[in-house]
Amino acid sequence: MTTTLKGMVSAFLSTRRLRNLSPNTITFYSQHLNKFLEFMESHYPDVSLEQIDHSILREYVSGIKESHTPGGVNHHIKVLKILFKFMVEEGVISDNPSKKVSRIRTDQTAIATFSNSQIMAMLETQSIRWIFQESEITH
After folding, report:
1. pLDDT tens digits, 32-43
2. Residue 1: pLDDT band with limits 50, 70, 90
3. What number is the average pLDDT over the span 99-115?
4. N or C terminus: fewer CB in 10 A for the chain?
């Protein structure tokens, strides 16, 4: 019996439905995996599941970088990793090619925090002192 990528995507989505994942999560997986299926059908139509390697996955990721934000690309990578882990667990493939595909770097936004002196100034205000006194009474 030959198992196809399309068949494994279908089986993967079915198991996620059986696990009672939210419809939004199923849609998320489906949309990302359909893009991967389209890529495979147009670039590697005759490649078996065992022949899909990290270089093919990296080529796919490289292609979507042009139309997606770094976070969006990482979502695609995450879904691929989940799919290929599923295929290994099901015994369909022996090695997980997505293990060699790393998430891409994203810019981190630093969150401004209060300094110690700002915190002390807030605590010294009458309104904050009142809140703390009220909470001590109710607890």
Report:
1. 999 999 999 999
2. very low
3. 78
4. N
For the segment 44-59, the average pLDDT, to the nearest whole number, is 95
Q: Directed axis angle between helix 70-89 and helix 54-64, to 10°?
A: 150
Where exactly are the structural domains of the chain?
Answer: 5-100
> Mind spelling out the 3-state secondary structure of the chain?
CCCCHHHHHHHHHHHHHHCCCCHHHHHHHHHHHHHHHHHHHHHCCCCCHHHCCHHHHHHHHHHHCCCCCHHHHHHHHHHHHHHHHHHHHCCCCCCCHHHHCCCCCCCCCCCCCCCHHHHHHHHHCHHHHHHHHHHHHHC
